[in-house]
């Protein structure tokens, strides 16, 4: 990390953190150079979705998700999960006639507040049960590279329903 850069000055990122999305663009499959270019070309406020890496893990508050912003000219909002055992994973499902086979809960503006999108239930039929890797309470970060940060429950449902064939889920477990 550049010690003179915005991230170091605002203390919002730590060495080892994983950047999952930059301004709602998933970094899944992106090269380091592509992610760096996306950051360098961004103007105004930059929103990052970040999960703590194993090198920078802290067990201070295992259930917290901090959202902080900076007052600098280029501001940065960082959504950060400090719960070390959670793992960032990619799960590829093939939507068949029984669908994806899971329901979701959460979303921006939900009755319980602004929440990430989580898997609520794995149904007895569908791609999720056949694959076996997706679990209830997994947080869905992105669907086919489309970042779900800040979306409503209805928007997340629409995104999932519109996907056909191969569906790539980026999740935190």
Protein traits:
173 residues, alpha+beta, Pdz3 Domain, five-stranded mixed sheet, 11 strands, Multiple PDZ domain protein, PDZ, PDZ_sf
Notes on the structure:
The chain is of the alpha+beta class. It has two domains: 6-81, Roll (Pdz3 Domain); 88-172, Pdz3 Domain. It is 17% helix and 37% strand. It is built from four helices and eleven strands, in the order αββαββββββαββαβ. It has helices spanning 6-10, 32-41, 127-131, 153-162, and strands spanning 18-22, 25-26, 46-51, 65-69, 76-81, 88-94, 102-110, 113-122, 139-143, 146-147, 166-172. The strands form three sheets. The protein has a five-stranded mixed sheet, with helices on one face. Strands 6-11-9-10 form a four-stranded antiparallel sheet. Strand 9 (139-143) and strand 10 form a beta hairpin. The chain starts with 5 loop residues before the first helix and ends with a strand. 25% of the residues are buried. The model is unreliable at 54-76 and 80-85 (pLDDT under 50). It holds the Pfam family PDZ. This is Multiple PDZ domain protein. InterPro entries: PDZ, PDZ_sf. Residues 1-54, 90-173 form the PDZ domain. It comes from Iconisemion striatum.
Stretches with pLDDT under 50, minimum 5 residues: 54-76, 80-85
What's the total count of β strands? 11
Quickly name the level 1 CATH class of the largest domain.
Mainly Beta
Overall residue-averaged pLDDT value: 76
Total count of helical runs of at least 4 residues: 4
Query: How large is the share of residues in beta strands?
Result: 35-45%
Query: What count of domains describes the coordinates?
Result: 2
Q: If you compute it from the alpha carbons, what radius of gyration comes out, rounded to the nearest whole angstrom?
A: 17 Å
What sequence of helices (H) and strands (E) makes up the elements? HEEHEEEEEEHEEHE
CATH topology of the largest domain: Pdz3 Domain
Class from secondary-structure proportions: alpha+beta
Q: How do the strands line up in the largest sheet?
A: 2-1-3-5-4
From the spread of the alpha carbons, the general shape counts as elongated
Oligomeric state of the chains in view: single chain
- The N- to C-terminal Cα distance equals 26 Å
Q: Under the CATH scheme, which architecture of the largest domain would be assigned? A: Roll
Main sheet makeup: 5 strands, mixed
